Amino acid sequence: MSRGGGRAEPGAASRACAARAVAAVLGAGATLDAALGAPDLQQLAPADRSQARALAYGALRWHHRHRRLLALLLDRPLPGRDRLLEALLSVGLFQLLDERQPDYAAVSATVAATRLLGRPRLAGVVNASLRRLQRERAQLLAEALADEQARSSHPAWLIARLRRDWPGDWPRILEAAQQSPPLWLRVNQTRLAPEAGLARLREAGIEAAPGPVPGALRLARALPVADIPGFAAGEFSVQDAASQLAAPLLGASPGMRVLDACAAPGGKACHVLEQAGGDLDLLALDADDARLGRVRENLARLALPATTLRADATTPAAWWDGQPFDRILLDAPCSGTGVIRRHPDIKILRRETDIGPMARRQRQLLEALWPLLRPGGRLLYATCSILHEENDDVVAGFLADHTEAAAAEPPAGTLPGWLRCTRHAGWQALPGEADTDGLYYALMTRRTG
After folding, report:
1. What is the pLDDT of residues 179-220, one digit of tens each?
2. pLDDT per position as a tens digit, 34-78
3. Beta strand pairing status for 439-446 and 427-429?
4. Is residue 332 part of a domain?
5. Which of 73, 139, 306, 442 has fewest C-beta within 10 Å?
6. pTM, rounded to two decimals
7. Vertex 328, ends 324 and 334: CA angle to 5°?
8. 252, 379 in Cβ contact below 8 A?
9. 275 and 224 share a domain?
10. Rounded mean pLDDT, 343-353
11. What residue numbers bound the domain in which 439 lies?
């Protein structure tokens, strides 16, 4: 659908771009961040680009609900599992069901997007589906939301895992994962005190409040980093408040030799350096060269010294110089189930069959890196998962098999009251508590003698 002179209807381009991004996740297994880097989206005007991102995130955040609605709305299943049509309909449903999205032109612009997507014959299906939802919204929603997957907009396997692992918390965890996350900043306390950082933001008209971790500031609304005063100069970094617990828990003192084994994108490594005034011999390791580039960019922006190296942390014989480390940070690759509110595509991309191999990989990393720790040194194991199989079970199994390893007491004053003690060894931040992401930490020490 277009207007006179072939000009596309306003809003059609942003919806088409959002649908392509969602389809890349549903059909090609792309991450949403990667899909949103497509050239067509980058060519949109800033306001349209922002709208496309919001629509893509919203469509995926609620896609399990939308799938159930589509089963009710369509007379027959989507042809050939047509991911692009499914994605466009999901974008349209999100607009009509989310109170924050203006729906006065949602249907017409979504229908018009079929032409931009090269699928004009689907305009009738899209129009009929969205118009029917407008007419029969209450009845259709009541029927769809009787299904637990649709109601929570999570896959059945993950609901079952959370119910088992967190029997008293799982409904709230599911609800928290459906919320849009805030933007958290970390004040670079080598440059200014947290109070001065807060004042700096407020002077610029940016509403912010202190967080549950010293130096963490929560913005009332998200902003591009280019609009944050002092960001380019290294006064602030973007980092979730729960992630800001890693550096104080690790407790690296000036002069220590430190390894950050899976360092990208570098937020934790930079924070560790900031807390020691930059006076560390720190090696930031990552297996992905592109992601390691992010670490270098952050170190340069903050003017912090570190050695960066592209290498596989599971094969230290290929890169370790034989000198032991005083502190090791292992932020292990994981399911990401604690950061679903930031990455709703995790609910689509992750499978239950992924969890066992991930836990084995995490144990492999621990086994490979433990010999690099000096006696009396400390290793901090961290994930952004909330599943016991990747967290407590990995650490408990490791401690049981290594008599020279022991759970360590955290440095005084580093554990906030909202952090949960786990069954065996470690602490868990659940999503939404203190408005943070869900992260797990376990601190271990290598016995001396």
Report:
1. 999 999 999 999 999 999 999 999 999 999 999 999 999 999
2. 999 999 898 999 999 999 999 999 999 999 999 999 999 998 877
3. antiparallel
4. yes
5. 139
6. 0.94
7. 140
8. no
9. no
10. 98
11. 243-446
224 and 252, same domain (yes or no): no
User: Which tokens in the block code for residue 188?
Assistant: 């670079």
Which tokens sit at 141? 């929603």
Mean pLDDT of 345-359: 98
Q: Where residue 125 sits, what CATH number does that domain have?
A: 1.10.940.10
Domain boundary among 238, 264, 283: 238
Q: Is residue 178 part of a domain?
A: no
Is 159 domain-assigned?
A: no
CATH number (domain holding residue 231): 3.30.70.1170
Radius of gyration of the chain (CA): 24
**pLDDT tens digits for 417-429?**
999 998 888 999 9
Asked if residue 123 and residue 72 are part of one domain, the reply reads yes
Residues carrying an active site annotation: 384
Are residues 232 and 428 in contact, defined by beta-carbon separation less than 8 angstroms? no
CATH number at residue 337: 3.40.50.150
Q: Does any domain span residue 51?
A: yes
Would you state the pLDDT for residue 5?
Answer: 44
